[in-house]
Amino acid sequence: MSVILKLFSVAVKTFYRDRMAFFFTLIFPFMFVIIFGFVFGTGSSGVDSKLLVGIVSPERSLYEIVNGMENLEAKKFESIGDVREAVLTGKVDAGIIYDDNKIRVILNLATIQRNPFSRMLGETVADHLTKRNIKIDKVIDLKLSAIDPGRVITTQLGYMIPGVVAISIFNGALFSMISIFCDYKKRGILKRFNVTPIKGYQFIIGMILGRFIFIFFSATVLLVFSQLIFKIQFNVNWILYLITVSTSILGMMAFGILISGIFNEPSVASNIGSLLMTIMIFFSGVYFPLDFLPRYLRKIGSLMPLGYVAKSIRISAGVENGSINSILMTSLIMIITFFVLVFIFGTKAFKTE
Question: Is the pTM value of this prediction over 0.70?
Answer without folding.
Answer: no
